[in-house]
Amino acid sequence: MNDTIAALLAHRSVRAYAPDPVPAGTLEALVAAAQSAPTSSNLQTWSVLTVDDKATRKSLAAIARGQKHIEECPLFLVWLADLSRLEELGRRKSASTDALPYLEPFMFAMIDAALAAQNATVALESLGLGSVYIGALRNNPTEVARLLGLPPNVMAVFGHCIGYPDPERPAAVKPRLPQNVVLHRERYTAPSQPAIDSYDERLAAFQQSEGMATVGWSKMALERVGGIAALTGRDRIREEINTLGFELR
Ligand SMILES: Cc1cc2nc3c(=O)[nH]c(=O)nc-3n(C[C@H](O)[C@H](O)[C@H](O)COP(=O)(O)O)c2cc1C
User: Fold this and answer.
1) CATH classification for the domain delimited by 3-174+235-243, as one of 3.30.499.10, 3.40.109.10, 3.40.50.300, 3.30.750.24
2) What does pTM read for this prediction?
3) Does the beta carbon of 234 lie inside 6 Å of ligand 1?
4) Of all protein residues, whose CA lies closest to atom 3 belonging to ligand 1?
5) How does residue 2 score in pLDDT terms, banded at 50, 70 and 90?
6) Around Cβ 86, how many Cβ atoms within 10 Å?
7) Do the beta carbons of residue 215 and residue 207 sit within 8 Å?
């Protein structure tokens, strides 16, 4: 154990913020941390965009089915998978970019954006800030692209609400699956049911202490994959991504 690991283990998503603004220079420090993340072949196929405009925040919150923290947080970022830079580079240099329309570049752009964002999250938590990702922006990627003026071959991977945690509404550390469920040695082994049952009990106790519905993990997880309605519009995401210019060949 050391301070870095202790900080990682203390992570919790923060959805309630104090009104204090994020200090000057913090955004640049977070982006520096993000840019230091590993990136596939050093291609750096991501960008990040800040959104201050109230009306835009409101529209984004509506896309995210009314997640108020998008309007309330002092700093709102949108992490982008960005293949447009490489495409533009090819155009300027009259060089082929024939590999870009394939699924793999889209995947590494998404991975790069997520790794960069998580570096920013670790950095911001080290500064006493808190945050929550907003995957719900993918409910309507084309509308998000329109609102943010994204060029073709750029997609919002998720939003990111950032601010100082409201001491009146503190977030707690959410327990995770037992390690032996996620850690496999040499060969993959299916998790034992008692391990899952024990996690259901631990998560239910957490939910109860947080005043949430005490459904445990299995029920909640199965509801999220139980039907197309649970995808909140994202069942059409392949077509949406195509519309944004990514062919996903
Ligand atoms: C890619 C991604 C998208 C997420 N989208 C949302 C979201 O739209 N709204 C939200 O409240 N939380 C969102 N979360 C936060 C998760 O719900 C949260 O990380 C998870 O429940 C574990 O809780 P913890 O972060 O407090 O440990 C997202 C997390 C990730 C990694």
Assistant:
1) 3.40.109.10
2) 0.98
3) no
4) 135
5) very high
6) 19
7) yes
